[in-house]
Amino acid sequence: MVFAPMASADEIREGEFWLKENGIEQAWKVTRGAGMTVAVIDSGVDTTHQDLKGAVVGGHDSSLVGAKDGSKPLGSLPEHGTLVATMLAGRGNNLEEIGRIRAEQDNNGNASDVPLPEEGPGDAGLIGVAPEAKLLSVSLMMGEEPAGMRDVDSQVADAVKWSVDHGAKVINISLGSTRQDWPESWDEAFLYAEQKDVLVVAAAGNRSGGMLQVGAPATIPGVLVVAGVDRKNKASWDSSTQGISIGVAAPAVDLVGGIPGGGYAEWSGTSGAAPIVAGVAALVRAKYPELSAAQVRHRIEATAKDLGPKGFDNQYGFGLIDANAALTANLPAWEPDPADTLAEWIRVHRRAAAPTQSAAAPSATETDLPSTHAAPKPVAPSTGTNLPALLVMGAGLLILGTGAAAVVLFVQRRKNS
């Protein structure tokens, strides 16, 4: 992942092109996500960042080696969680204006003559897609293995369950694996989210990170999977991938976000596209509290702007996210197909471990499942000399496995005062 320095909070706001181009500013006329809680399962969030003031209302550490409330950025790319959180529900700030006024006060010696604006929410800094939603920071340790750390599979399962139990209506997971299958411990966790009506949004992954096709958890049925496009709304070669589980696409190139310590950075990848869509999901759930998670997912997909070949395809899914349409379009009533659920996938594909069924009651076959959201069969772990699957964040961070990956960071840690 490559970060480029950003000079000021004002430049950050100007750089959020997706707010206008993807219908988010129009959607704010309807709702800004008040009342919604979104969990960010990631490397941990710097809750002191000025653009997150009042946004993070709770948290948890699933690694067993971080801060108990998920507020300590962890691992080989600790910036990642704060980048995601600010894009999803940043509040913005007025620190630039406050700094200017304070400088004038110091120069003139008349501090009482000029009132100070409130410190956020403001019209500078990073404002997220759902700036009135509440966040839960759930930290994972990736890329390092300190003593006492829980294994990565267990961390993810624990993080999902904790998020559901603590009120999340949407979960953002901006990480993925180079494998399509997933451990059975994830069956229980993601099924729990499905049964509790929680929508999981996951990044499709990036070719530059070694993901030539969508990998878990973006292959799990029911997950809203996000691919990435460039500034011309073309599928990004480096900052996206492909697969039949992709639901929608969102901007993934030339993104901006907040980093620990109060700074800002430019970045790319479906790690940043996912919180844009998770934010839209929070807006939809705020507008339509009666809709189920599956119906929210359908509304987002059904209102996306078709890209690429007509209709669904494996690069853009149903098309480019359109926040305003997702909130305002008049759609016909829709009910989810029971076959398009993780519960049904588990029944069909894990049945080898289940009690033998009566021949008089045949189960569904693979061909009964919807082809556009099909998930892979379980694959036995390799016993050869191949490297284990990698779990990756952003545009190529190696956080699980025995190989090595180069991660170039150009980060400006800048506080505006």
TrEMBL record:
The keyword Transmembrane applies. It comes from the Bacteria. Residues 33-319 form the Peptidase S8/S53 domain. InterPro entries: Peptidase_S8/S53_dom, Peptidase_S8/S53_dom_sf, Peptidase_S8_Asp-AS, Peptidase_S8_Ser-AS, Peptidase_S8_subtilisin-like, Peptidase_S8_subtilisin-rel. SUPFAM superfamilies: Subtilisin-like. GO terms for molecular function: serine-type endopeptidase activity. Residues 354-365 have a biased composition (Low complexity). The chain crosses the membrane at residues 387-411. The active site is at D42, H80, S271. Belongs to the peptidase S8 family. This is Type VII secretion-associated serine protease mycosin. It comes from Neomicrococcus lactis. The lineage of its organism: Bacteria, Bacillati, Actinomycetota, Actinomycetes, Micrococcales.
